[in-house]
Amino acid sequence: MQTMIWPAAIAVLGAALFLGAAGIFLLAVQYRRHGRLSWRRTITTATAAIYGFGLFSYTMLPLPETREAACFTGLGITQTDPGHFLYDFRASIAELGLRGFATSFVLWQVLFNIILFMPLGILAVRWLRGNIFTGMVLGFAASLTIELTQYTGIWGLYNCAYRVADVDDLIMNTGGAFIGAVFAYLPIFGFLTGPKEGDARYAAPRRVTRSRRALANVFDAAITTGAVFAITGTLSLIERLGGPATNERLMNFWIPLVVVFFVFVLPSLSPGRATLGQRCAWLIVTDGGTNRASAGRALSRSIIGFGGITFLFQISTSLTEVSPYPVLNMLVTAYIAVSAVFFLSDGHQQGLAGKATGTGFIDRRAISIREH
User: Fold this and answer.
1) Which UniProt keywords apply (predicted)?
2) Maximum distance among all alpha carbons in the chain?
3) Which helix (H) or strand (E) holds 223?
4) pTM of this prediction?
5) What are the C-alpha distances in Å from 131 to residues 40, 197, 315?
6) Whole-number Å distance between alpha carbons of 114 and 108
7) What is the pLDDT of residues 48-78, one digit of tens each?
8) Which residues, in sequence order, are bridge partners of residue 166?
């Protein structure tokens, strides 16, 4: 029983960490594609993440401790005889009888392979909006990838195959995905299907609300933080592997500056007149009315507003120190508080940066419709 529980625990933990790190990016993609967020679509995406980590846990773990640990006689033998499990069934029935066979490892290993891939078929139909054939193809492709990964010792990471690559597993897994795809049409799985919304580019413009603008700021913050973390983490890993050393000024100033330039500055200067996060939320900076703002005013708004706040926050927070600029950190915190209060109390929803630059926001599709 314990061998069944711990992979599930690892799957839940892995999915939680993944969604915690990448969840906001998935929401940004969802909003950009569909023009709104859907709880049903979000829950289904989280379900798919948990299932993906579960599939990995049950088929790949535990890993050998060393590259040579799997190189023992009898370990990782390839089984290439289709239908060999039927001989195992016959031998088990002869030895244990039907009652013993019903609870035997031989039977439940095959059933588990089927059950493990049934959710893939369900998700193929409901989440990916495919059909039974789609579920079968995905099941076959996923199972073949798993079997080849086991056969090659994770593509050469280990010197020998550390698990049995079994053609019967390929057959059972594909069959499980097929059964899941058939079951997916039952009404009970209807909640896994998100709303049938078309391309957000062709949707009607919607009113810009405070929550929508706040969501755009969340997207911008996530994109910036994720990019800075990815770049600095990669450089640190290269240094630990013997590559060139990186200095603190590069890590704590220049990298945030470059990231903020590409997330806030450059997009604000382009004809889209909006940061990357604002574009995900279908916003565009205007001159206070319904016209596209000039590049200078859009840039000024970004620098005075969330773009400047994000940059100052990035350089006042270090990976190697608690706060290299404690005074700056205090000033940034105070400015964030003042901006937040102004944003929430302003009846015109302009915000502090909007008031200073005389700019506002509208749904970018309204300008696209008018200009075309």
Assistant:
1) Membrane, Transmembrane, Transmembrane helix
2) 85
3) helix 210-240
4) 0.73
5) 20, 19, 50
6) 10
7) 889 999 999 888 888 877 777 767 655 567 8
8) 79
